[in-house]
Amino acid sequence: MELLTPGTGLIIWQTIIFLMLVILLSRFAWKPILNSLKERESSIQNALEAAEKARSEMARLQSDNEKLLKEAREERDKILREAREAANRMKDEAQDDARKSAERIVDDARAAIQIEKQAAMKEVRTQVALFSLDIAEKLMKKNLATDQAQKEQVEVFIKDLKLN
Amino acid sequence: MSVFSAFYSRFAVLFALVLVTFVNTFGKAADAAAEPEAFQPSEVILHHVLDDHIWHFWDGHFGTLYLPVIVYSAERGLEIFSSSNFFDEHHQPVIYSGYALEHGHITLNGNPVFDISITKNVAMLFINAALLLGLLIAAAKGAAQNSGKAPKGVQAFLEPIIVFVRDEIVKPNIGHHYEKYLPYLLTLFFFILFGNILGLLPGAGNLTGNIAVTMTLAVFTFIITNFSGNKAYWGHIFWTPGVPLPLRIVILPVEIVGVFTKPFSLMIRLFVAITAGHIVLLSLISLAFIFQSVTVGFVSSLIVLFINLIELLVAGIQAYVFTLFTSLYIGMAIADHEHH
After folding, report:
1. Separation between Cα atoms, residue B222 and residue A126, nearest integer Å
2. DSSP letters along B61-82, please?
3. Which of B12, B21, B116, B246 has the fewest CB atoms lying closer than 10 Å?
């Protein structure tokens, strides 16, 4: 029975000591320890969040880099393609020009030849006419050397007239 | 806990060895004395489990620590003297200026006095408090020094326990407003844990297995629970909602009794668990004295070692359970019953 009857003295001491413990420990132990725990937890949380942010940032940068690289590659391809096109175009143009100028030269030449030919023809015609006149004179001179011949000729003319 | 259990098992082994030799010599001495009186295990056990005005470690000149007696009576007022005054040089009880010590109670000329002596358990209480203050303030210093760094030393040992109490016991049971109750609950947990472990040391007093101690703790819990009780808590007790009227009248006394049985169960549980452990240990040790055999002493020492380890487990469990139920009761008292 002694075991089950609480002693007054011990109750009093226990109350005093326990209350003192609660007050002293709250002030000098629990408060600093719990604060430091909370601080550490929040700092760990922050560090984890920062790491996560850095990781996503890194991923973003990497994808950016890749995008840039891709863009640069596309740009390069475009420039090369354009350059090739330009070169081709220039080559075509040059060929075109060459052909055109060649044609023009040929045309010019042809025109010049034509002109020359016409001039020559004209010359020839004149010469032929002159020759013909010469020959005709000579012929006339020879044929109409006698009076007889002249008479005959007149007769011919008259004959012609009669015909008319 | 590993540090503690290693330390403790070493202690238990030492204790068992000392016990074996002690049993041997004591047995022989008892033989030589022609067995003037038979060994009374129940008396010895009760004596060890109960509080006392002297702290008896072993027989002989320096084996007993005489603790100060502080008594108050209307006749004599407050008086302080050593409990050694109650014993003569042959260690026989004597009456000191009218005061007599009988079965742990001090009487003045046959009348009871108001006794606030530093008994064995009060001394244990001081040791426990000093240990708690020393270790926890050292941990707090460590926390201040290592702020932003990894914990070290005592701090590293105690912080996980504090985190366990906060996150596993207090937070889930109390909820949002847990921080207000945390200092009390942490103090409670560490007081019981350290008290239990200290009580297991050879020669130590049975502090947390004393009903006065567990009663005081339970009363603190009772006061805190009922002073924190909100409208919903009292409403539940006096006018349980959602129950038919006749049943409410039946429930009312049950609920009122429940308010008191909760702390009562706390008081009894801790007291019984720790005292029973001590009784089991002492009974096993007594076997050696009953049989007066070294072999039995050796075997019972091995069993005592095993039971000691279990008691170590119980020390933790009881601290956990007391704190858990206190948190639960507080949580119930401050819970919002909006779902009704």
Report:
1. 152
2. SSSEEEPEEEEEETTTEEEEEE
3. B246
Which residues span the domain enclosing B227?
120-334
User: Does B324 share its domain with B239?
Assistant: yes
Do B208 and B111 share a structural domain? Answer: no
The reply to whether A59 falls in a domain is yes
Give chain A's domain count.
1
Q: Coil, strand or helix: which one is B118?
A: coil
Closest CB to B125: pick one of A4, A8, A17: A17
Mutate: best of B69, B186, B272, partner A, most A CBs <10 A: B186
Q: Are residues B145 and B206 in the same domain?
A: yes
Using a CB–CB cutoff of 8 Å, tell me whether B295 touches chain A: no
Quote the CA–CA distance of B279 and A43 in Å, as a whole number.
Answer: 49
Q: What residues of A are in contact with residue B139 (Cβ under 8 Å)?
A: 29, 33
Q: Model confidence over A2-30: pLDDT tens digits? A: 788 888 899 999 999 999 999 999 999 99
Q: Which of A2, A14, A28 minimises the CB distance to B216? A: A14
Same domain, B201 and B75: no
Domain assignment present for residue B45? The answer is no
**Same domain, yes or no: B128 and B216:** yes
Q: Which helix (H) or strand (E) holds B311?
A: helix B294-334
The whole-number average pLDDT for the span B72-87 is: 88
Look at B122 and A22 and tell me if their CB atoms are within 8 Å: no
- Which residue out of A10, A21, A37 would a mutagenesis test of the B interface target, given it has the greatest number of B Cβ atoms within 10 Å? A10
Statement to judge: residues B188 and B307 lie in one domain: yes
Is A143 at the interface with chain B, CB within 8 A?
no
Contacts of A36 in chain B (CB under 8 A): 143-144, 146-147
- Report if residue B39 sits inside a domain: no
Residue A28's domain comprises 8-163
Residue B57 lies in a domain: no
Measured CA to CA, the distance from residue B223 to residue B219 in angstroms comes to 6
In the block, residue with structure tokens 């969040």: A49
Same structural domain for residues B155 and B73? no
pLDDT tens by residue, B82-128: 888 888 877 788 888 888 888 778 888 888 888 899 999 999 999 99
Task: Note the pLDDT of residue B273.
Answer: 95
Measure in Å the smallest separation between the Cα of B116 and chain A Cα atoms: 4
Q: With 70 as the cut, is the pLDDT of residue B21 above it?
A: no
